[in-house]
């Protein structure tokens, strides 16, 4: 597998970390329940006016029209940014008071911590606002409850775009020029979003969780569908090792076998590769084979094993020079060689 496919960023949809029923059965009803009192008490306050002014003009002048529009959007599950921002504001008090706590799937918190520890960047991309995303990850049923420190970045329909458009994923990737699009892994429970991410060059898989609509067989044939983050661990670890320049088992064995073959075929080192000490020792040994001093001052020749001729007796050797004759060792060796040639 090429290093360019090694996952460096895991981009998560909220639907992969907690039941979709949490949003529909807990968050949406809480916002609608808190809306009337919030509108009544904060309609003209600066902190609420920011959200009110983001709505279309026809709904900004009347509290009744404003609330009716919010209810209509929620009932139709319309994903518009100004509604998502308002919902995040309405949910905040519920989270802080303890009325709301995000029920993460059991595999989520441990796996996020593990991926983070392995050096992967974790990011969230949801149709819910960034503010709502941060609240969800800050107030969870995990221990510790606040997981926001594990998340490197947050994306929603405002700062990235619609999740079913490939341009949105291209925009997210462009924020990290040092990471290739193919090194992003987007996980979602929505098939259309997965297709859009793949079209943008990202890796993407469907995470099918309890409570989700069944994934059609034709989708399972063309996309990888997993049920937990645990199913991803082996694949992501392999890709991470590749990103670090390490090899898988088969590649390692191949390299080791190649190295062993080269070692067997390598020639023995020549004299030119020896150190000066080794050369000196070899020269001394060579001389020793030709001449060995005798106790009585005579010299005995040693022929190499298997060489032509026979060893000469001591009587046949020329007499050793007496002191003061001026004969040198070289003269003696020459005389010995001449004698051997006779």
Automatic annotation (TrEMBL):
Residues 243-342 are annotated as: Disordered. Residues 324-342 have a biased composition (Polar residues). Pfam families: Hydrolase. Pathway: Amino-acid biosynthesis; L-methionine biosynthesis via salvage pathway; L-methionine from S-methyl-5-thio-alpha-D-ribose 1-phosphate: step 3/6; Amino-acid biosynthesis; L-methionine biosynthesis via salvage pathway; L-methionine from S-methyl-5-thio-alpha-D-ribose 1-phosphate: step 4/6. Residues 243-252, 273-304 have a biased composition (Basic and acidic residues). Its main location: cytoplasm. It catalyses: 5-methylsulfanyl-2,3-dioxopentyl phosphate + H2O = 1,2-dihydroxy-5-(methylsulfanyl)pent-1-en-3-one + phosphate. Keywords: Amino-acid biosynthesis, Cytoplasm, Hydrolase, Magnesium, Metal-binding, Methionine biosynthesis, Nucleus. Its EC number is 3.1.3.77. It is found in: Cytoplasm; Nucleus. Substrate binds at residues 126-127, 163. The keyword Cell membrane does not apply. It is an enzyme of class 3 (hydrolase). It comes from the Eukaryota. Belongs to the HAD-like hydrolase superfamily. MasA/MtnC family. PANTHER family: ENOLASE-PHOSPHATASE E1 (PTHR20371). Monomer. HAMAP family: Salvage_MtnC_euk. Bifunctional enzyme that catalyzes the enolization of 2,3-diketo-5-methylthiopentyl-1-phosphate (DK-MTP-1-P) into the intermediate 2-hydroxy-3-keto-5-methylthiopentenyl-1-phosphate (HK-MTPenyl-1-P), which is then dephosphorylated to form the acireductone 1,2-dihydroxy-3-keto-5-methylthiopentene (DHK-MTPene). This is Enolase-phosphatase E1.
């Amino acid at each position: 597998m090429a290093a360019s496919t090694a996952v460096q960023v895991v981009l998560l949809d909220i639907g992969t970390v907690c039941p979709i029923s949490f949003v529909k059965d807990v968050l949406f009803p809480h916002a609608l329940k808190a809306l009337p009192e919030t509108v009544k008490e904060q309609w003209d306050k600066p902190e609420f006016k920011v959200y009110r002014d983001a709505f279309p003009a026809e709904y900004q002048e009347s509290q009744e029209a404003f609330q009716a529009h919010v209810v209509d959007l929620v009932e139709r599950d319309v994903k518009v940014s100004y509604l998502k921002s308002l919902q995040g504001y309405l949910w905040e008090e519920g989270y802080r008071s303890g009325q709301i706590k995000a029920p993460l799937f059991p595999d989520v918190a441990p796996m996020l911590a593990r991926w983070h520890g392995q050096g992967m960047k974790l990011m969230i991309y949801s149709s819910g606002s960034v503010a709502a995303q941060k609240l969800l990850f800050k107030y969870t049923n995990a221990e510790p409850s606040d997981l926001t420190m594990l998340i490197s970045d947050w994306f929603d329909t405002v700062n990235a775009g619609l999740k079913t458009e490939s341009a949105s994923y291209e925009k997210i990737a462009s924020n990290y020029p040092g990471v290739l699009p193919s090194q992003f892994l987007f996980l979602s429970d929505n098939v259309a979003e997965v297709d859009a991410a793949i079209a943008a060059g990202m890796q993407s898989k469907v995470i099918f969780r309890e409570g989700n609509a069944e994934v059609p067989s034709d989708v399972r044939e063309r996309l990888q569908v997993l049920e937990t983050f645990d199913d991803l661990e082996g694949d992501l670890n392999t890709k991470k090792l590749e990103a670090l320049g390490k090899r898988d088992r088969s590649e390692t064995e191949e390299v080791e076998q190649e190295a062993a073959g080269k070692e067997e075929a390598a020639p023995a080192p020549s004299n030119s590769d020896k150190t000066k000490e080794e050369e000196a020792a070899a020269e001394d040994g060579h001389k020793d084979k030709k001449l060995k001093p005798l106790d009585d001052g005579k010299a005995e020749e040693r022929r190499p094993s298997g060489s032509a001729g026979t060893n000469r007796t001591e009587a046949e050797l020329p007499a050793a020079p007496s002191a003061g004759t001026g004969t040198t060792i070289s003269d003696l060796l020459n005389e010995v060689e001449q004698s051997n040639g006779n």
